[in-house]
């Protein structure tokens, strides 16, 4: 029962989530095993109980696709890599770089910086390795404090728009908190540019590119955050993982995962339930039993805690792999599909033929009329069981049992739904819901604002936020692979 499992993990991980929000910063420099940071979706969940707003969904889809069109394939050395398209206008004001932080609907973390617990909102970016903060004069967004006593200015340029100061950040592995000085490139638009009206904010690049100097996706000449933490010997493993608690919050773990904490919390609950009415049970005997059970059932090695898939794709630079199988209601509908993992897409984007296969096998579905024809509707009461197959295991995609699950993950219609489709002007529900699996014409139809030439994205899926629900995903740059675990 996947629904029940994800219900449980939310309960188990919620206390950790609360702790993370209220750590006092002791500032002691101690080794940590992994750095855990809470993440949030700006502006809340995409779909709520309101009927789907199709105009808004189309805009959002174009916005998501536009991000993928900014990169093309290129031969570098003897490899095919992804690199930024040359900017067509204004080389001095890299508006894409400055416009990236602070957007609605993006997942971000609160990073504690400076002597006081002064957090900055840092947007996750799985498509680039760059870590930087943007300072504009608009007064909007989340501003980094340059007046703090730990801010060390450095006017050396790592990009025509970015200086190279450093500051102290604070990280915790839930037991120990540690402080470390990192370089935090600070980018500002030139005075007369329209980019001065953009939001202030920060970006945490998490793409699998290696060191910034050799990465064709990097626009700054400074190391990614994870690499800095490894160089400082604060962390030892070049991995990070994402664990969503619901459709608005979760945990980003740098250098490690939450697999053990989740397993321990769930084992503890079982042991406590079993001990109800046992007068001999004490905190110590319960902890002892929890440890015994974990020792017997939970593998010590990350190798065995996850199911792995190697990074594969038409070009290096993003988290792409091959999905061996996609199953619907117990039948394998598609195999060996190229996929890109990106939590910042609120949809599952499927190539046209694949989207059609999926909705035809669900039954009772149809494509919406132009101009909404990238979206499909399905009967809200029809709850297909969609499974992703990785490493010989099955991972439920958006399957829903209704009830609690539905309240946590989305609107009526279950997890597959982006909202109900209303019948017309009078707000009556049609009994149909708009599907989260959206047809993408990436790589096929260029438009005036999107150029797919050389993108290599034809037939590529995007496994966005919904693919992260109820599973733990670990990204291993060192061994160029991605791991999945059911929660
Ligand atoms: C974390 O802190 C505890 C107590 O302060 C210490 O014993 C332990 O060694 C620290 N952990 C690491 C990995 O340094
Ligand atoms: C739907 O979204 C559009 C664009 O975001 C917005 O202008 C419009 O007011 C929304 N309509 C409703 C009924 O909320
Ligand atoms: C709403 O509109 C639909 C079709 O446009 C119609 O069938 C239905 O009766 C209307 N409902 C109300 C309450 O007016």
UniProtKB/TrEMBL annotation:
InterPro entries: PEPTIDASE_A1, Peptidase_aspartic_dom_sf
Presence of the UniProt keyword Transmembrane helix in the record: yes
Membrane-spanning residues: 12-32
UniProt cross-references to Gene3D superfamilies, sorted A to Z: Acid Proteases (2.40.70.10)
Source organism superkingdom: Eukaryota
Keyword set, alphabetical order: Membrane, Transmembrane, Transmembrane helix
Residue intervals of the Peptidase A1 domain: 107-485
PROSITE patterns documented for this protein: PEPTIDASE_A1 (PS51767)
Protein name per the record: Peptidase A1 domain-containing protein
């Amino acid at each position: 029962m996947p629904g029940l499992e994800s219900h449980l993990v939310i309960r188990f991980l919620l206390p950790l989530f609360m702790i993370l929000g209220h750590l006092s910063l002791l500032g002691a420099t101690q080794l940590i095993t992994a750095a855990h940071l809470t993440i949030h979706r700006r502006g809340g969940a995409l779909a709520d109980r309101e009927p789907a707003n199709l105009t808004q969904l189309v805009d959002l889809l174009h916005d998501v696709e536009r991000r993928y069109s900014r990169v093309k394939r290129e031969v570098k050395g003897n490899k095919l890599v992804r690199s930024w398209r040359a900017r067509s206008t204004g080389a001095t004001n890299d508006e894409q770089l400055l416009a990236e932080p602070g957007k609605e609907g993006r997942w971000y973390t609160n990073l504690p910086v400076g002597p006081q617990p002064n957090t900055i909102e840092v947007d996750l970016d799985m498509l680039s390795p760059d870590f930087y903060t943007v300072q504009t004069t608009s007064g909007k967004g989340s501003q980094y404090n340059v007046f703090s006593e730990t801010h060390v200015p450095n006017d050396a340029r790592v990009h025509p728009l970015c200086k190279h100061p450093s500051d102290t950040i604070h990280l915790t592995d839930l037991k120990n908190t540690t402080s470390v000085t990192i370089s935090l490139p600070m980018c500002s638009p030139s005075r007369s540019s329209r980019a001065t009206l953009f939001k202030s904010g920060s970006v945490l690049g998490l793409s699998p590119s290696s060191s910034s100097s050799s990465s064709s996706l990097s626009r700054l000449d400074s190391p990614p955050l994870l690499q800095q933490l490894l160089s400082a010997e604060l962390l030892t493993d070049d991995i990070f993982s994402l664990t969503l608690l619901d459709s608005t919050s979760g945990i980003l773990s740098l250098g490690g995962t939450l697999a053990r904490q989740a397993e321990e919390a769930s084992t503890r609950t079982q042991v406590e339930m079993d001990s109800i009415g046992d007068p001999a049970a004490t905190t110590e005997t319960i902890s002892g039993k929890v440890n015994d059970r974990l020792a017997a059932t939970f593998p010590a090695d990350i190798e065995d805690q996850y199911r792995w898939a190697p990074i594969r794709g038409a070009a290096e630079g993003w988290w792409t792999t091959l999905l061996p199988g996609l199953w619907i209601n117990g039948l394998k509908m598609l195999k060996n599909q190229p996929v890109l993992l990106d939590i910042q897409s609120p949809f599952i984007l499927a190539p046209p033929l694949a989207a059609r296969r999926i909705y035809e096998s669900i039954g009772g579905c149809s494509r919406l009329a132009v101009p909404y024809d990238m979206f499909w509707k399905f009967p809200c009461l029809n709850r297909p069981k969609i499974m992703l197959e990785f490493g010989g295991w099955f991972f439920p995609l958006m399957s829903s049992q209704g009830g609690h699950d539905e309240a946590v993950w989305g609107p009526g219609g279950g997890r597959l739904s982006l909202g109900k489709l209303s019948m017309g002007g009078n707000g009556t529900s049609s009994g149909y819901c708009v599907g989260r699996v959206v047809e993408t014409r990436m790589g096929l139809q260029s438009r005036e604002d999107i150029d797919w030439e050389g993108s290599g994205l034809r037939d590529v899926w995007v496994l966005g936020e919904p693919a992260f629900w109820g599973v733990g995903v670990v990204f291993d740059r060192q061994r160029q692979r991605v791991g999945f675990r059911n929660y």
